[in-house]
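Example record

The entry below shows one chain as it appears in the dataset: sequence first, then structure tokens.
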Amino acid sequence: MTHPPVSVVVVSRDRPTALIRCLTGLSQLQYPNFEIVVVADPAGCEAVGASALSDLIKLAPYDQPNISEARNLGISHAAGDIVAFIDDDAVPEPSWLHYLIAPAQRPNVAAMGGFVRARNGISWQSRAHTVDPMGVIEPFDVSPHRATVMTPKGHRAIRTHGTNMAVRRDVLVALEGFDPGFAFSLETTDLNLRLARAGHATAVVPLAEVHHGFRSSPRRRTDRAPRDLFDTGSGWAVFQRKYMGEAQRKDHWRLIREAERRRVIGHMVAGRLLPRDVRHLVARMDQGYGQGLMRQRGGAQIARSPVSPFKLFPYRSRASVVLAGRSWQHRRMRAEAAKRTEAGDIVSLFLFSPTALYHHVQFDPVGFWVQRGGLFGRSVRDAPVFRFFSFRERVAAETRRIGKQRLIS
């Protein structure tokens, strides 16, 4: 396998701690030819500057709440043949680029998208989907073990997730990158539809995994309850103007608005919001929709040639090791995991209790992976609620489950 140069672009705003955790994960990537481009607000720039990785990363200051413009700035700084995108509140598996970039060996593949784990590190947040010019998303089945290359047919496009995707840089330049009219939502959907219209094939790569953590932001709380829906409304207005005739827009907006209202009410029923919050959020969404009807579309600014040369991140071939212990041994086991991480290993730590508790996976800020749960509980959520294991059997089963992504031999 060849290793084309890849620029990994991370956009960060209001989450400096999460950004450093993301960069720690990126530093363990087992891919020998990549650079990291961080586009960040002042807090993010300060955090990167104070980190041990500061001299190894391209840093582009940007302090506006517009993810499309920030990503376009990242593309301008990117000097790789391929540009990969990951969010600041996400962490990649060490094999991420190894799998994600492999389909680029086929010249007809312009874009690649992987699978996204949800906040528990086990369930799926995003897998294989298509999307149409109405914004309707539909799942489809692919082999979980290999990449599937999809050529666009009809009006549907292959949907990639903004926190786990890669696109050839020359294709991004030709398509003028991300549309700044989409300040927060639907920017990736818009790019997917334009890739399909241009006839570009997209590879769906299940083994290219990213863990997405749902960190808090001005738009969303840690518990996923929304704080503001202004950008959701404005994004849909821009989307409608771009892909729908005027006759379609009223009924389409009614359906979108009602779906968002039901989602917010669900948070209220769960005790995360108050009735007055529902009224405020729906009103803000309506205000955003009105603003989006007047917002300028297009006009992206991307440098055709990179504004700076490729800054190769120092690659280090790492051994992937497994540590396992009982839940009451967690202090000693975490100390051992930290020690092995500092020595340069990729560490997967299993901590099991004598229960049937569900499993959760997290990437510790120190730089190792931790999976906690009951010895008899389920990790994969469609597995039996209780299943008898010996300690050794459970460690072996979970090691097999993550082996390809964690590069455990």
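Notes for this example: The chain has a mean pLDDT of 96. The longest strand covers residues 201-212.
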